[in-house]
Amino acid sequence: MKNLYIFLLLLFYVSINAQVFKKISNSKIDAERLELAKEFSALFFAKCEKQDYTEFKDYKMSVTLAKKLTEDNIKKTCESTSRSSGKITISDLKTVYDFKYTRIYDPIDYFVFNILTENPNSNYKYAIVSIYHDQNIIDGVYLSDRLPSEKKKK
Q1: In the structure, what pLDDT confidence band is assigned to residue 14 with cuts at 50, 70 and 90?
Q2: Which tens digit of pLDDT belongs to each residue from 97-136?
Q3: Which of 12, 13, 99, 117 is an S-S bond match for 122, by CB 3.0 to 4.6 Å?
Q4: Rounded to an integer, what distance in angstroms lies between the CA atom of residue 10 and that of residue 49?
Q5: CATH of domain 2-11+20-144
């Protein structure tokens, strides 16, 4: 499970206070980024199901994510996810958050999708895709049992 978080989480700021996340109203959601987030997350989990661990083409990704999406890392993540949750299907959009950490970082939107899992005992409820505002660069995709704005349970 730690491998999944290390790979997909990309230092997803678990210690950051929920105040930096601002919920975006449905009318202000960027349709292009929404479609990109849904396509990428659906493709990621479809690749897991097909055991296709090849690189992702035709997507602009952050340097950090591109370095982590090696065939070996994808395989490990997919196998771990498959053991814990079975097949994962992206469902509907739950919400979108704007993440503004400081002025020196580019703003990121977090697209939160409800997921359907084959294993009813899976801890995961959401697939979250982070995309930079400028140039629609994908920064990560991960599974979670909580929304980004919720504090981690201790």
Answers
A1: very low
A2: 888 765 566 788 999 999 999 998 899 999 999 998 878 9
A3: 117
A4: 23
A5: 3.10.450
Which residue would you say has higher pLDDT here, 7 or 145? Answer: 145
For the purposes of burial, counting CB atoms within 10 Å of the CB of 121, is it exposed (0-12), middle (13-18) or buried (19 or more)? Answer: exposed
